[in-house]
Amino acid sequence: MAGKKQFDVDTALDAAMVQFWRAGYADTSLDDLSRATGLNRSSIYSSLGDKDSLYLRCLDRYATRYGDRYDRALSRASEEPLRAIREFFEVTLKRIADPDLPDGCLVAQTAMATPVLSSTIAARAIEALGFQRARLRTALNAAKLADSDADDLAVHIAAVNQSLAVMSRAGASQEQLRAIVDISMNALSQALHARS
């Protein structure tokens, strides 16, 4: 269409997601989003929605992107549960080590900021954390752990996974993060061996 600037919505959403991820919801202004996406304010509103709507779209995009990777990592939990959980953690460790991405985790940052966010955004972050626990619980049940053990370990592994993102944002090294994973993997190994 003549006179209208064309842009790729996926590219703009990725740029907005990284901006929110880097600075957080409260510290990201519309000017920041405009610089990140290359769109003016009216284009952001008309094409991507208001700040809350855009944040929700970015949070969903993030949760889907990494959720799909977590699902692939956990897909062989019934045959190789330890390897599957290790690969689950690797998704997070690779994301943290990627120099093109901000430190931390958009879901973890959102969860930590829930007291100052809209109830809709806070609920979406809690829902994303719930999905992570549910996918872990499913994988652990596939490894034939008792329901109560699977529930407890799913909560533990999800908490460790989120703490990796928080620790990375606070400057923890890859070696320190891998040591945290190793301790959790040892606990899981003991639980699986106790079952057999």
From TrEMBL:
Keywords, ordered alphabetically: DNA-binding, Transcription, Transcription regulation
Transcription among keywords: yes
GO molecular function: DNA binding
DNA-binding span(s): 29-48
Every HTH tetR-type domain range: 6-66
InterPro entries: Homeodomain-like_sf, HTH_TetR, Tet_transcr_reg_TetR-rel_C_sf, YxaF_TetR_C
Gene3D superfamilies in alphabetical order: Homeodomain-like (1.10.10.60), Tetracycline Repressor, domain 2 (1.10.357.10)
Matches recorded under Pfam families: TetR_C_13_2 (PF21993), TetR_N (PF00440)
Protein name: DNA-binding transcriptional regulator, AcrR family
Highest taxon above the source species: Bacteria
Keyword Hydrolase: no
